[in-house]
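Hi team,

Below is the intake form for Amidohydrolase from Nonomuraea monospora. Please confirm the fields before the structure is written into the shared record.

FORM ID: S-0412
PROTEIN: Amidohydrolase
ORGANISM: Nonomuraea monospora
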Amino acid sequence: MTDVLLRGGLPWGLGAPADILVRAGRVARVSLSPVEAPGAQVHDVSGQLVLPGLVEAHCHLDKTLYGGPWVPHSAGDTLSGRISNDLGRRAELGVPSVARITALLERMSRAGTTHVRTHTDIDPAAGLRGVEAVREAAAASPIDVRQVAFPQHGVLTNPGTAELLEEALKSGVEAVGGLDPAGIDRDPVRHLDLIFGLAGRYGTHLDIHLHDGGTLGGWELRLIIERTKALGLRGRVAVSHAYALGQLDEAAQDHLVEGLAEAGVAVVTAAVYDFPVPPVKKLRAAGVTVACGHDGIRDLWGPYGSGDMLERAMHVAYRSTFRRDDDIELALEAATVGGARALGLDDYGLAPGDRADLVVVPAGSPAEAVVVHPARTLVMKDGVVLHN
Ligand SMILES: [Zn+2]
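The structure came back. Fields below:
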């Protein structure tokens, strides 16, 4: 494997131009003085910012219509309208489609994304078709794609789903999902016991969609914290959306943030539409891992989403009313090392020994990279330059 030398870039966090030598898929040296590397492939990235590869921690690849003709959104304004629109038009539009997923992964890779965690629908009607389609597209992509077996239409209220979730985990799906244990399944204790049981049995990660808001959502977060601690699943549990965290009063919020930190539960936000965004700054100050993702990307749930995680970081920063550079950097952290931590990836960053998943952008600072989200000039995965 050829060594690669990135000459003169600005590694995030270093504060000065440096040479980065990559060897055998890892960052070998980060040096303020010029590195001599005979035989290395050299890329001059002077004046440009070098970031760790972007991590998309929450999307739905199996649902995407990306890469095909524009499909005008046809659902009504209610959740039930969106669910019936999704179920009703899938066959007509060929969802899930390996070609569409492939097109989206290609777009994501060009935009510097090196890891993706995607929630794949599992239910008796779809079976494991989505899991197989995502697997097929992922096998041909340089992106490291991990799936969450996602019960989009409920577990307890949709007989046969629990067995399929287990089948998905047996087949190698990396995480088990959940969905509004109260709002959809109407029995939070049983719902959570079931999915935590699966995660414990199969040694997988767990990522729960929690839209349930207010005190109800807050109470469900406590149930998640309790189970994470009881089963010793620190670092393997994430709550996606967690609207309640953004809605509760300060005291209730503080109490939950402390609990999440203590249990090692990550929070994943998409910052879409006008849905509540968890308090990113407070969560980070308490040591809670914060990650982000697009949620749907151009699908039957909505027409938005570009696959660009710097643009998504901008939405997270904007919705969090971040203006100062150091605040905006928290959103970039969620789109890089925060996402990596949520996915359980070790050695993620720009230090010697870290995996060489890197992206170069023509920006003078991390905050500028987020706000402008310019075209990527170089993308590297496992020490190999994929795009430049
Ligand atoms: Zn989602």
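SUMMARY LINE: Residues 257 and 282 are 8 Å apart (CA to CA).

Thanks, M.
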